[in-house]
Amino acid sequence: MTVLIILLVVAAVVVIFFVSNYNSLVRFRNQVKNAWSQIDVQLKRRHDLIPNLIETVKGYMTHEKETLENITRARSEAMKASSGSVGDVAKAESSLSGAMGQFYVVVENYPDLKANENFLSLQEELTSTENKISFSRQNYNDQVLFYNNKIEMFPSNIIAGMFNFTKDEFFEVKTEAERQAPKVQF
Amino acid sequence: MWQIIQSNKRKSVLLFILIGIVLLALGALVGASFFGEGGFIIGLSFALILWTILSSVSYFSGSKLLLKISNATEVSKNVHPQLFNVVEEMTIAAGLPKMPKVYIINDQAPNAFATGRDPSNCAVAITAGLLTQLNRDELQGVIAHEIAHIKNRDILFMTFAGVMLGSIVLISQIFLRGMWFTGGGGRYKSRDSGGGQAQMIIMIVAIVFAILSPILTQMLYFAISRRREYLADASGARFTRYPEGLASALEKLSQNKYTLKSANKVTAGLFIVNPLNKKGMKLSDLTSTHPPISERIKILRNMNNGAGYNDYQLAFNKVKNKSSAIIPSSEIKKAERISKREGSADDKTMSKKKTQRELGDLMMNVNGYVFLACVCGLKLKFPPGFKEPQVKCPKCGREHKVPLAELAAVTGAINEGVKK
Fold it and tell me: Is the same domain home to B413 and B332?
């Protein structure tokens, strides 16, 4: 009788251990997903804003064809990468940010453009979107760190191995331009 | 962060009880001095009922009340897109579950505050005057400070304290004025000839307490709220990763020469800088809700190595020349590296005339005016309820179609806001 009770208690402890660890792994994974979708919304918003921007500035910036083409190219590349891995997205978005940075430098030479209300409101939206990207990136990386730690640490690593929880990638910025937060000039 | 939130919640409960005791004591004494010994219970129960009502009012609609007193209007994104964007950015940076409602106060004195019950039911309010003076980085700093109050659970405390303080001031005012008119002891004193002496003593105690209790409550409130201001500055710097933004906004706030019309002793604690302070006055007295601005600016500018909590604490120690813990030790221990970012080059050095014009436009916008730019450069402004379908530009004579649909939409939105 006592042996049976002991066995039952041990079994219960093992079950509780499994369930709680599994659940917290799932929770962490969902938090990472949620954080990623927040970044994703902002990235999409940036992709949507850029054609409008190009359309608005085209008439003014006749001598900057190359800069504008660079942006368009980087944008379509970033859109292509958006279904890929986090690393690919990060790389493509970094080069888009770089192209945008170039653009902001050039804008300085066009005082007429800087007085255009339509351009100013687009500029505000883009600045804000870039800020939102960088703030939500911080949040995403924090969540990934929690999740990856959980996967690596004992004893949850046993459960993670059994149920195939894999580590997530950080959203890292590669270029020097992105490492400093967007520097907007107008 | 958890530790900060917990300690703030604890302090809110403490304040809740302490103010309750002050209120009950005041009620009992006032009752006793008017109705004799039996009045002790009458006054006490009256105060108890009042306390219950006030607590529930400040919990469920304290923020609405304070916003109303402050003359704030809820606005939508089209009134000021940049303000909305900045609030959204800081919501993300602070990790709030929901974006707070945005209010603009129709006043040219620069100031801002946050109010609400918890991070899902909250609002930030900013005066039109401040909005037109700040550039993007500074606005971000101010909003980050307010969002930090929401994140650190300061807002319930501040809203609650504001409502409670208001009612204690009210009761003692009523009592003192009542004393003035009835000429002292009240009608019941003469009947009870034996207790006359005791009655007199209670009377005097009641008067003294009625005079002191608003001051006492205020001091209680301020004792706890100063540290919150430093903490909100620290969080603000961390959220924006740019301490200079908040520092230079505070600098502009300190050079203010207007007084906020709708602010009073009750709501003063809510604002980012003391709204009752006039230029040149020193804020270093005991009853000040806020630490001196110059000191707050100095601390922010001394954050040389980064924008994290530990950087703020180091700068604080350096400026104050002592080490009192502003930031809870759990946050310091983490010693996270939060590097500062560079400021944007958006400087807003407008002429005085232009600032005034922008301020006027903003106020009109808040009140439901719709603008239409004419090709000649003139801005046509239509008041809410404008009916004519066509209008001529007064400068160049071009015909314009009045944006009636837009006008109706804006007016509708404002009316709905009023109904709410």
Answer: no
The answer to whether residue B105 sits within a structural domain is yes
How far is B199 from B154, CA to CA, in rounded Å?
42
Structural domain includes residue B300: yes
Q: Are residues B232 and B296 in the same domain?
A: yes
Q: Which of A132, A183, A185 sits opposite B89 (nearest CB)?
A: A132
Q: Is residue B301 less than 8 Å (CB to CB) from chain A?
A: no
Q: What is each CA distance from A106 to A64, A75, B285, in whole angstroms?
A: 8, 18, 52
Of all residues in chain A, the one with the smallest CA distance to B238 is A135
- Give yes or no: residues B414 and B346 share one domain: no
Residues A135 and B232: their CA atoms lie apart, in Å, by 18
String of DSSP letters for B81-94: HHHHHHHHHHHHHH
Domain count, chain B: 2
* Alpha carbon distance B168, B214 (integer Å): 6
CA distance B72 to B78: 17
The closest CB to that of A124, out of B85, B342, B345, belongs to: B85
Task: Please give the CATH topology (third level) of the domain spanning A32-179.
Answer: de novo design (two linked rop proteins) (1.20.1440)
Instruction: Check CB contact of A112 with chain B, cutoff 8 Å.
Output: no
Q: Which of B135, B340, B344, B379 to mutate to test the interface with A (most CBs of A within 10 A)?
A: B344
Same-domain status, B140 and B267: yes
Are residues B119 and B164 part of one domain?
yes
Among candidates B85, B95, B342 on the partner chain, residue whose Cβ is nearest the Cβ of A128:
B85
Written as tens digits, the pLDDT of chain B (420 aa) is 677 777 777 877 887 788 788 888 888 887 877 777 677 788 888 888 888 887 888 788 878 888 888 888 888 888 888 999 999 999 998 888 889 999 998 888 888 888 888 888 899 999 988 888 888 899 999 999 999 999 888 888 777 777 777 777 777 777 777 776 665 444 444 444 455 677 777 778 778 877 777 777 667 666 667 778 888 899 889 888 889 999 989 888 887 767 776 666 566 667 777 666 544 344 344 445 566 788 888 888 888 777 788 888 888 888 877 777 777 766 666 656 666 676 665 555 555 666 677 777 777 777 777 777 777 767 777 777 777 778 877 777 777 777 777 777 777 766 665 554
Interface residue A41 vs chain B (CB under 8 A): no
CA distance B135 to chain A (A): 12
Nearest CA in chain A to B347: A186
Same domain for B245 and B378: no
**A108 at B interface, C-beta within 8 A:** no
Domain presence at residue B360: no
Residue of A nearest to B348 (CA): A186
Residue that terminates a domain, selected from B355, B387, B407:
B355
Residue A30 β-bridge partners: none
Does residue B272 sit in the same domain as residue B411? Answer: no
On whether both B260 and B400 belong to a single domain, the answer is: no
**Between chain A and chain B, how many beta carbons pairs sit less than 8 Å apart?**
46
- Rounded Cα gap, residues A97 and B317, in angstroms: 39
Residue (of A107, A83, A88, A94) closest to A174 by Cα position: A94
